Amino acid sequence: MSTSSVRTLSGIPASPGIAIGPAFLLDRQEFRVQERDLAEGDVEREVDRFQEAIVRTRDDLIVLQERIAGDVGEEIAHIFGAHLTLLDDPEMVGATIARIRRERKNAEWVFNAIMQRGIATMAAATDPYLRERTADFEDIRHRVLAHLRGEQRLPLADLTSPVIVVAHHLSPSDTAEMHRDSVLGFVTDGGGRTAHAAIVARGLAIPAVVGVDVATREIEHGSLIIVDGNDGAIYLNPDEDTLRRFEEARTKQSAVERGLTRLKDLPAVTPDGHAVDVSANIELPSEIDGVLSSGAVGVGLYRTEFLYILRPTLPTEEEQYASYWDIAQRLAPKPVIIRTLDLGTDKVLHQLDLPHEANPALGYRGIRICLERPDLFKAQLRAILRASTMGNLRIMFPMISGLAVLRHSKQILDEARAELDGAGIPYDRSIPVGMMIEVPSAALIARDLAREVDFFSIGTNDLIQYTLAVDRSNAKIAAYYDPFNPAILRLIASVVEAGHHEGLWVGVCGEMAGDPITAFLLLGLGVDELSMSTIDIPEIKKIIRSVTFSKAQAIAQYAVTLSTSKDIQDYTQAEFQVCFKNAIGYE
User: Fold this and answer.
1) How far apart are CA 276 and CA 50, in angstroms?
2) Which is it for the CA torsion 397, 403, 408, 411, positive or negative?
3) Residue 2, CB half-sphere, CA atoms under 13 Å: how many?
4) Which residue range(s) make up the domain with 355?
5) What CA–CA distance (Å, rounded) separates 461 from 398?
6) One domain, residues 16 and 78
7) Is 161 a member of any domain?
8) Are 23 and 82 in a shared domain?
9) How many Å apart are CA 551 and CA 548, to the nearest integer?
10) What is the rounded distance in angstroms from the CA atom of residue 260 to the CA atom of residue 580?
11) What is the pLDDT of residue 558?
12) Last residue of a domain, which of 149, 173, 206?
């Protein structure tokens, strides 16, 4: 039935499902942090007060982690392991204590200043994934400050009647503290699908739409709304026909969700025998438990940037080695692809003292910094090589734009090998070396590049951004960021063809891999591996196991012949519905 008379808002579908209920506007006031001078005799008491706040915050997070592990499993609870890693960072804690003693300032003022600096660095990142991690740091900041001030927060834990939460933003622990019998769904002005709050929401089966921008301004407290976490739509004050339609859809979807949890230990193989590796994207060693419990075949992308963020100094080779060794040993024999440093002025400004750039996404970043700082680059490469004796590690270079850049990167890798040889330090001499295809120039010469590496992994997030000249963080042009653009699909198809011609396997580690519709297309295009957030793995496995490869191929091959994004999207969605209506229940 038509819903044209019902007012709607649009956002990003972050957690599937349909929620119907009254809106609860969460008005979270920002802490006002006052600067206070300390007498000399009060300094150590202030240090003790800060350390006690850290202990209490850690206790809070351990309770949350245990609760989430019991409710929905380790793959979601590992997010709070990442929080604990940040909270236990000796650089952050030590820097706060040192400044309290040196400047004789109160703990709130010093801690807040240190955290705000790190948060500002991440908020300015061009990488949307890293920008979304600011919520994790904000979460830690708010919790520690609350304990320092002796205040209670977390009003969501005290809700007594079922509501749909509407907020400017929500932290992962906000989401974790929601009770499913009192929080029906949530809507936020900001955020993205890969934010940890969204991942927790999916684990708790709480429908969510994020990135609505105007939600807190346009939705009235107490008004009836519908949240469609499948399509990213919010219906304000729906009429009876609209309510009836969504209540029926909600009933159908609940039956679908129950079937996905049985897929963890099943292989991602199509009915006609075509296998696809389904891997996980991670950023911290604390996420390993989530990889093991999700059914992933390994790690398709380990982002190493978090070894650098919020630190006043660069990590040493030994610190990196310890991190890579832990991952390799715990996941062996599963493969782990470690992406080398993808740093830039948007991510580690204070460590490398890099100049400000008007457009850092196109500037001095990633492999470009590493090639000009071989000391920095080789420290990481030596650490990876040394850890490779403990498990199945693979090295992947980011932002390769041509043969010269790739060969220069391999030359420095050879130098790192030679240094280890000279010191008599063992490493896996056959460690696979691959590269990301995320720059259009690399996609266009993929066959030449394929002769020099062991594998490709297509970073669709940046490939789309660079190919379509779209900064997807710019809300005014976000609609132009389009994975269904024929140019994108044809580039991906050409990279797969080039890689296979030279005997390489080709993976995808961008957001397209974890989205059901685009993953369906990637399957048909012949991609060998799909790497994604662990929470998306069951659904993508179900898709692969529910359609023959020959059928997916025919659909994808026809889709790439179409001339407009709308034609491709409409055609693919229609075929998707036909293929999966019975198997998965998409309608």
Assistant:
1) 49
2) positive
3) 2
4) 298-431
5) 13
6) no
7) yes
8) no
9) 5
10) 13
11) 98
12) 149
Question: What amino acid positions are annotated as catalytic residues?
Answer: 196, 509
Q: For 572, phi and psi rounded to 5 degrees?
A: -65, -45
Q: Does residue 356 form part of some domain?
A: yes
Of 126, 149, 172, the domain-final residue? 149
My answer on whether 234 and 373 are in the same domain is no
Question: One-letter amino acid identity for 362?
Answer: L
pLDDT at 587: 42
CATH number at residue 518: 3.20.20.60
Residue 83 in contact with residue 61, Cβ under 8 Å?
A: yes
Q: How far apart are CA 80 and CA 64, in angstroms?
A: 8
Sequence-distant (6+) residues with CB within 8 A of 95 are: 114, 312
Residue 512 in domain? yes
Compute the distance between CA of residue 16 and CA of residue 14 in angstroms, rounded to an integer.
7
Contact 436, 457 (CB under 8 A): yes
Q: Which of 455, 334, 322, 456 is nearest to 392 (CA)?
A: 334
> Could you write out the DSSP letters of every residue in 163-226?
EEEEES---HHHHHT--TTTEEEEEESS--TTSHHHHHHHHTT--EEE--SSHHHHSPTT-EEE
CA 12 to chain centre: 14
Question: Is the four-CA dihedral 42, 44, 48, 50 of positive or negative sign?
Answer: positive
d(CA 553, CA 62): 46
Instruction: Judge if 539 and 559 occupy the same domain.
Output: yes
Do 164 and 130 lie in one domain? The reply is no
Q: Which pTM does this prediction carry?
A: 0.72
Tell whether 256 is covered by a domain.
Answer: no
Residues of the chain scoring pLDDT < 70 = 1-5, 28-31, 72-76, 78, 126-130, 132, 152-155, 157-158, 194, 253-261, 309-312, 344-361, 363-364, 472-475, 581-587
- Give, for 85, the enclosing helix (H) or strand (E): helix 74-87
- pLDDT value for 129: 64
Give residue 450's pLDDT: 98
> Residue 135 belongs to a domain with what CATH number?
1.10.274.10
Do 83 and 23 share a structural domain? no
**Cα 450 to Cα 403: distance, rounded to the nearest angstrom:** 10
- Phi and psi at residue 453, in whole multiples of 5°? -135, 175
Q: Which two tokens stand for residue 372?
A: 């000009």
Report the distance separating Cα 160 and Cα 555, nearest Å. 49
What pLDDT is attached to residue 470? 86
Specify the number of domains making up the chain: 4
Residue 390 is classified by DSSP as G
Separation CA 487–CA 498 (nearest Å):
16
Q: Which helix (H) or strand (E) holds 532?
A: strand 529-532
Statement to judge: residues 66 and 145 lie in one domain: yes
User: Contact at 8 Å (CB) between 312 and 91?
Assistant: yes
> What single letter denotes the amino acid at residue 86?
L
**Same domain, residue pair 446 and 578:** yes
User: CB within 8 A of 111, min separation 6: which ones?
Assistant: 50, 96, 141, 144, 145, 148
3-state SS, residue 231? coil
Structure tokens at 78: 């590992």
Residue 150, SS3 per DSSP: coil
3, 243 in Cβ contact below 8 A? no
What residues have CB less than 8 Å from 337, skipping those under 6 apart?
279, 298, 299, 300, 301, 302, 394, 395, 396, 434, 457, 509, 531
Specify the length of the chain in residues: 587
Separation between Cα atoms, residue 434 and residue 337, nearest integer Å: 9
